[in-house]
Structures are given as structure tokens and as C-alpha cells.
Design a protein that fits this description.
Keywords: Membrane, Transmembrane, Transmembrane helix. This protein is α+β, with helices and mostly antiparallel strands and about 250 residues long. The chain folds into 2 domains: about 90 residues; about 120 residues, Protein Transport Mog1p, Chain A (3-Layer(aba) Sandwich). About 35% of the residues lie in helices and about 30% in strands. Helix 2 packs across helix 4.
Length: about 250
């Protein structure tokens, strides 16, 4: 009888050890699989370094003459594209100014899309990183759980957590979600030199990158994007006045 109990006890112990071994083996695989290759990790950190460089711009709304305004969907904006050639597409409108040789002198676009933060948990499918394929993780409540209200909060979150370490005791959900969020951000965020945070009468930010400024206004769950290319033409004063005179009709979404 004692021998039988001993055999059962040993079998139970072996079973438990096997389960523990399989579990930690699986966790080790996850930790290895859900991480950036070294070169991509460095690129991701370089990407976020541009989002760390900040300044602010106070937006003070001022009225502009209606005849000097253009309209795109529910947005009215100052006509900074007099003499430009206009092209309308399904999801944006562009204006280009060419010289006599057909070379670009300036380029401007307007579009309406979702904030970057809203893509977390909404995008699905498979992402490819090197030889690996990563399935999107459902994280519909990501922003709420992390206390993130807008894209600027999202940028701050990515910067703060870019070097988080995971181990065998980190939950499977956390391992998968963190890698998914980093990978999605690596794919969708553009490279920038710095970010100008907009405060005051409008909420948003400007992505500064070389000879381009991309003004992003956050309103009503949408991201209104105005891209200015050739800053010798679109000066800081022009862009500042453009922002201050923007009108978004909140009754139309």
C-alpha cells in the first residue's frame, strides 16, 4: 500500500514538473519570438527619439475673411495655395505649385483619418518582422487601461516603455500585447525630427521632419492632417496663422 502511494506521489510530482516545464518552455519561446531583432530595435529607438524632442505652440483662434477660406468636407482653412494645381482623391486633396520646368516649388495636402492611438486594437491581420509573422492582438480597451487620452499621451507611453523587460513571470497577454503595440507603432509612425504640441483653442501636434511640417488636429475622434512641404514657401508664420484660423464644423463628422 505504501509502495503504491509512493508511486502515485512520484507520478504526480513528475506530472507537475512536466506541466511546469512545458509552461516555462512555452514562455521562453514567447519571450524569444516576441522581440525585435537588434537592428530593428535600434531603428525603433531612433524613431522614438524624434518624438521625445518637444516644444509647444499656443493656438489662439482668430477669425479670417470668408473669401480667403477654402473648404474640405467639414473643415474651413485659409487659402495658402493660391495659384496651385488641385487634385482630389477619395481620401485626401492635394495642391502643388510647379515652376516653369515642372519642378515642385511647394506641396500641400489635407486629409481626415483616425488618431494613431485608435489603431491599437482596431487593426487586424498579420505583421511581418524579418522572417517572423506576428498576429494582431485584440486590445480594444488598451487606451482606457493605460490612461491614454490622445496621440501625445500615446507617444509618451511608447517612449516611457520602449525598454521594458519581460521575463518568465510576465503574463502571456502582456508579452504579446507589448510586442504588438511596439511593432504596430514601428510600422505606422513616420520618422520625425521633433514634435510641436498644440495647446489652447485646438488640440493636436505638428510632426516636424526636414522640409516638411505635418499639422495634426485632434477633434471629435478624428485626426485632421495638413501637410506643408517646402518650408521656404510655407514659413512658420504662415503655418501659425493657418492653424489659428482653422474652423472645424463639429456638427458634421
Amino acid at each position: 500500500m505504501k509502495k503504491k502511494k509512493l508511486v502515485i506521489t512520484i507520478a504526480v510530482i513528475i506530472g507537475i514538473l512536466a506541466i511546469v516545464g512545458i509552461y516555462f518552455g512555452y514562455k521562453s519561446f514567447l519571450l524569444s519570438f516576441h522581440q525585435f531583432p537588434d537592428d530593428s530595435k535600434q531603428e525603433y529607438q531612433n524613431l522614438l527619439s524624434g518624438y521625445e524632442k518637444r516644444d509647444t505652440l499656443e493656438v489662439k483662434h482668430s477669425e479670417a475673411l470668408s473669401e480667403g477660406m477654402l473648404t474640405y468636407k467639414n473643415v474651413q482653412f485659409q487659402n495658402v495655395v493660391e495659384g496651385f494645381e488641385k487634385t482630389e482623391e477619395d481620401d485626401y486633396v492635394s495642391y502643388k505649385l510647379l515652376d516653369s520646368n515642372g519642378n515642385y516649388q511647394a506641396y500641400f495636402t489635407v486629409s481626415i483619418t483616425e488618431p494613431f492611438l485608435d489603431h491599437v486594437g482596431k487593426d487586424d491581420g498579420t505583421f511581418v518582422m524579418g522572417k517572423d509573422e506576428i498576429d494582431a492582438v485584440e486590445s480594444d480597451d488598451f487606451a482606457k487601461r493605460k490612461g491614454l487620452k490622445n496621440d501625445v499621451d500615446f507617444f509618451d507611453y511608447l517612449i516611457e516603455h520602449q525598454n521594458d523587460k519581460h521575463d518568465l513571470f510576465t503574463s502571456v497577454k502582456t508579452i504579446k500585447e507589448d510586442h504588438y503595440v511596439q511593432l504596430l507603432s514601428y510600422i505606422m509612425l513616420p520618422s520625425v525630427d521633433s514634435v510641436t504640441v498644440l495647446k489652447g483653442d485646438l488640440e493636436g501636434y505638428i510632426l516636424n521632419n526636414g522640409d516638411m511640417k505635418e499639422v495634426n488636429i485632434l477633434e471629435g475622434g478624428k485626426r485632421y492632417v495638413f501637410s506643408f512641404i517646402r518650408l521656404d514657401y510655407f514659413t512658420d508664420d504662415v503655418i501659425r496663422e493657418f492653424i489659428n484660423t482653422l474652423v472645424i464644423d463639429k456638427s458634421i463628422q
